[in-house]
Amino acid sequence: MSAEPDRLSPRAYHDRTKHQLDRYAAGPGTLDWDAQPDPFRRYADCPEFPLALTTAPGTVSFGDLHRPGAITPAPVDRAGVGRLLEVALGLSAWKQYGPDRWALRCNPSSGNLHPTEGYVVSRGLPDLPDGVYHYRPDQHLLEQRAGFSAAATASAPAVLLGLSSIHWREAWKYGERAYRYCQLDVGHALAALAYGAALLGWQLRPLTEWSDAEVARLLGVDQPTGGAEPEHPDLLLAIEAPGVASPSDAESWLAWAAAATWRGRPNVLDPRPLYQWPVIEAVSQGTTKPATPPLPAFEGVAAPCLPAPEDARPAVDLLRQRRSAQAYDPAGTMDFVAFRCLLDRLVPRVGVPPWSALPESPKVHPVLFVHRVEGMTPGLYALPRHTDARALLLGALDQRFAWEACPEVALAGGLALYRLFTGDVRRVAGLISCHQAIAAQGAVAFALLAEWTPEIEDEPWRYRWRHWEAGALGQALYLTAEACGLRGTGIGCYFDEALHELLGVRDGRLQSLYHFTVGHPRHDTRIQTLPPYAHLRRD
Ligand SMILES: Cc1cc2nc3c(=O)[nH]c(=O)nc-3n(C[C@H](O)[C@H](O)[C@H](O)COP(=O)(O)O)c2cc1C
C-alpha cells in the first residue's frame, strides 16, 4: 500500500478528486445510515444565551436588499445578531417522511450534512457579554466559549462573525471529494450571512489578512477536542454598521482573546467512523492560509439591479423559503424576465449582497445550458463576470464556439451573455451532472468555471476562496430563483473532465467547481413540512 502524502497541493487534490465517466472519486463503498453523524455540534458546559426568534416578517422587502442605502441600519445588539443568524444559518423547516425527520437550514449544504459552524465574537455590545460564541442553529442560541472580564474590554462595540468546517461531516458520506463540498458550503454560508446582514442594513467585510492559525485561536477551534472531530478555521467577517468599530488587526483581538477564560467540550459526532480519508487533512494542510497583507477593497459594478418578479415580498420570507428542488417539470419554461434577472444578480455589485463579503474579486464564470427559456435559443452560453474574462474564456474554450453576443440580455458594467453553441443540450447536461435528471429537466443548468491562475499554485488558499465564490454564486442563484417564483438546486456531483472536454477547456486554465440548475420545481407531496422552531418555547 502506498503511503498518502501529508500535504497536497490544490492541483494534486483537485485532479485526484475528479469524477470520471468510468470512475467516481474515492468514497465509502458502504454507508451505515443508522450511524449518521450527529447533525449538530454542541459545546457542553458553556453558558447559553438564547436568541429571540422573528415573529413578524417585517417591512424590508427582498428587493430592498439589492438597493444600497434602502434599509435603515438596525442597532448592532443581541437581537440584531440573533436575527442575522436566524435567517442565515438558522433552521428553515423540519421535514418528515415516515419515521424519518430531518432539519433544513437557511444555508444549503451538500447532502444536507452541514459541515459549516458559525461563531460570533463580540465586544462592547449593550446586551451581550463580551466573548466568543458558538451558534447552535437547532436551539437558536449562543454558547459562550470564552468570556472576558469587563476590565479587559473597555473598547468601542465591535462584532466579528466566524466560520469553521468539520470536514468529517462531508467526508463521512462523500470520501475524498468532500473537501470541495465543505468549501462550497462555506461560500453558501458566507453569502447567507451577507444577505442576512443586508436585511439589517449592515455590511460584512472579510478579514483577508488573518492567518488560519489566528482565526483558529480567536474562535477557540485550536483547542484540544477530547476526541471530537476537529473544526478547521475558514474566515472572519467584520460587521460594518453605524456605531460599531471594525478593528480588523489580529493582534488586538488575539491579545483580548488570550486574556479570556475558555470553556466548553465539543460533542463527538461520529463515534464509530467506518473509513478514514487522510487526503482531506492533506489538502487542508496544503491550502492553509498564512497571515498576508490586506487585499484591496472589493471593486464592483455600481449600476442598479433589475427588479425580480417577487422582489416586493418580505426578505425574511424569501430567505427562509429557500429550498433545493428534488425534481423539475420537464416542460416548464422560464420566462425571459426571470432569466435576465437571474443573470443580472450574478453581476458583482458594490454594496449588494453577497459580493463584497467575498475575499477575492470575481474569478468564477458561469457557462449556461439553456434548455427552455422564453425568447432564447437552446444551447450553450457563457457569462464572463469581469470585462477581461471574455478574452480569457475565448482563449481557453473550444475555438469553434460562436461567441455571439446576446444584445437582448444587456447586463450592467459592460458585461454580456454570449451564445457559444446552438442545440439541444439537455441530455449532455444531465449526463455530465452524474446522470442527474435535475440538470436536464430544469429550464437552465450552470457550470461554474473558475480561473485557475498561477496565484492558486503560489497562494494555495485561493483554491478555497474560489470555491467560496462558486458557493456564493450558488446562493445568489438559489435566492433569485425564489424571487422569480422558481427553484434552484446546487450540483456538486459532476464529471469534471467530461465537462472540460465538452467545452474544449485547454491547459487546465479553467476548472469547473460547481454546477447548478434552476426551473419549475415538482413537489413531493409525501414529505411533510413542519415549522423550524416549534420545539422551542421562549415565553
Ligand atoms: C455544495 C452543494 C452541492 C450539492 N449537490 C447536489 C447534487 O449533486 N444533487 C442534488 O440533488 N442536490 C445537491 N445539493 C442540494 C442539497 O442536497 C441540499 O442543499 C440539501 O439537501 C439541503 O436541502 P435544502 O437546500 O432544501 O435546504 C447540493 C447542495 C450544495 C450546497
Topology:
Layout: H1 10-16, E1 43-44, E2 48-50, H2 78-89, E3 91-97, E4 100-105, E5 116-123, E6 131-136, E7 141-147, E8 158-165, H3 167-174, H4 178-199, E9 203-206, H5 212-219, E10 232-240, H6 250-258, E11 261-262, E12 265-266, H7 278-286, H8 315-321, H9 336-344, E13 364-370, E14 379-382, H10 389-396, E15 404-405, E16 418-422, H11 426-432, H12 438-441, E17 444-451, H13 454-458, H14 462-483, E18 487-491, H15 496-503, E19 510-519, E20 528-530
Antiparallel strand pairs: 1-12, 2-7, 3-4, 3-20, 5-6, 5-8, 6-7, 7-11, 8-10, 9-10, 13-14, 13-17, 14-16, 15-16, 17-19, 18-19
This protein binds flavin mononucleotide.
Brief overview:
By secondary structure, this protein is α+β, with helices and mostly antiparallel strands. The protein is built from 15 helices and 20 strands.
